[in-house]
Write a structure and sequence with these properties.
single chain; alpha+beta; HIT family, subunit A; 5-stranded antiparallel beta sheet; 2 helices; 5 strands; 22% strand; globular; binds guanosine-5'-monophosphate; hydrolase activity; Histidine_triad_CS; Histidine_triad_HIT; HIT family hydrolase, diadenosine tetraphosphate hydrolase
């Protein structure tokens, strides 16, 4: 049997996280190592390793994931001032967890998008 990702263990509540939202498709929780005052991960409940593994069958789920990201931004009160949504992919994208997720970052001016 395949080993569960750390995010699957959070989704199934085997390990703790500050879960803000969950439905049958996605789960949103605070990042353990926040890079901004607001840093939330919106994760697909099913394990999709990278954005490269997205297929046409995932389109509705990912549209929904965007809607949940906006809902989280509104809930955190950062929708009007703005925020950033990021999906990292593989080594050059500095992806750490191979379970599809989107970062929602905000609560301050985020500066330039890519440094170095
Ligand atoms: P990636 O680099 O894969 O796009 O981002 C993975 C994110 O997951 C990182 O920002 C990291 O801080 C976060 N993360 C890793 N392990 C955990 C964990 O156990 N709990 C939570 N809440 N976030 C985690």
């Amino acid at each position: 049997m395949c080993k569960k990702t750390i995010f699957s263990k959070i989704i199934s509540r085997e390990i703790p996280a500050d879960i803000l939202y969950q439905d049958s498709l996605v789960t949103a929780f605070r990042d353990i190592n926040p890079q901004a005052p607001i840093h939330i991960l919106i994760v697909t409940n099913i394990e999709i390793p990278t954005v490269n593994d997205i297929t046409i069958d995932h389109e509705n789920m990912l549209g929904h994931l965007f809607s949940v990201a906006v809902k989280m931004a509104q809930q955190e009160g950062i929708d009007k001032e703005g925020y950033r949504l990021i999906v990292n992919c593989n080594q050059n994208g500095e992806q750490e967890i191979y379970h599809f997720h989107m970062h929602l970052l905000g609560g301050k001016r985020l500066g330039i998008m890519v440094s170095e």
